[in-house]
Amino acid sequence: MNINLTLVVQMIVFALLIWGTMKWIWPPILSAMDERSRKIAQGLAAADRGEQALTEARGKADAIVREARERAGQIIDQAQHRANDLVEEARGTASAEGARIVAAAQQQIQLDTTRAREDLRREVAGIAVGAAGKLLGREIDPRKHADLLEQLAAQV
What we know:
By secondary structure, the protein is an all-alpha fold. It has one domain.
């Protein structure tokens, strides 16, 4: 066998192998590599979008937390003002109730004093009538001398 003929046949077989590889094997490999490259690019783009969305979500969350803290502060202030108002209202009610109780007690004291004076006048009038009856030597009828007894009680 001739070495030149072997080399030529080997070159033809190699050329056919390259041509077959380029025709049937190389395109699916390139398409798979292109597809993989496209998926990687999409994944990186999705990661970038995810980072942007995360940054926006953190900003929104911070804003919501800030707003919630402000609202909580306002609610606490309103509650403190309402509590102070209730305390002042209770103090006013207690003061009014205390004044009413004091006025009622003073009125009761005046009423009791007036009753005691009237009772004392009646007792003094009864004692005076008894003493006058003993001095006169006869009994004075309180029913007959009611006007006289009333005048005496008014003077006492």
